[in-house]
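Input record (one chain):
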Amino acid sequence: MNTIRFFVLLLFLGIVIGCGGSGNKTDEKMVIIKTEFGDIKVKLYNDTPKHRDNFLKLVDEGFYTDLLFHRVIKQFMIQGGDPASKNAAPGIQLGGGSPGYTIPAEILPNHHHKKGALAAARLGGPKNPMKESSGSQFYIVQGLVYRPGQLDTLKMKMNAQRKDQLLRESFDANKAKFNELQSKNDKAGFDLLVAQLREKADSIYATKSPFKLTPEQRNDYTSIGGYPSLDGEYTVFGEVVEGLDVVDKIATVETDPTNRPVKDVKMKIEQVK
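The corresponding structure, as predicted from the sequence alone:
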């Protein structure tokens, strides 16, 4: 009797574990980005559902059909999804179009800008403090391979830039006060304000998480490559599973001064059912 119960229990556990283990992979949605250079197969992450669902909705609507990869930078990325790029005249700078909405950021530490990462473009700078994504524009990372020492240097540079950005924001917020002190030729007051703002920026910086790279990130960036300085700034919501060679081909096309390909690179995206 005990033997029978034991085997029944094993069978039950096998069913539960089997269902749980296959769920994520089975449920992952795939899309094919078709181009004249070949197809790019992309899987969409389940833990960025807002971006996944919006992307699939646009794909199913045919939104991306005949849109362009309008911004291409070798060893960086290829970008598309601007609705204004459809039938756009040659030489026109693109990149400002959208479907009329943005998507809340889903920036997660387990997704980074390795080669082949699919990420959402967005408006940068202080006008978009919540890092909300474009409703339709996306990019695929080509990037480059880093040496370990280069990653260490980049980490120091990124943290210094973040600290400088806090200081610039403090200075901008106190521009009127600086102008007043300067008009009064109050050098002592001017220097005191600078010192106070530096101290404030240092205090704010101390409360924020520094830019750092996990062992997985370091491994990816020193093997397949990528663009680590974008990590934590943009939502990565998928990755290329087939067709990295196509990304490389598109990334090397001739471009104009605005990084738009001289010869249009059109796309058509379909969901893999």
